[in-house]
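User:
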Amino acid sequence: FFIAIHSFYFNNLTWWHSMFYWQWW
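Assistant: Predicted structure:
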């Protein structure tokens, strides 16, 4: 359960970081 939540959170964070990176570039 915790692993699934962590995986989802990590994926979401990665997506947000990717969007932020694209915004800056």
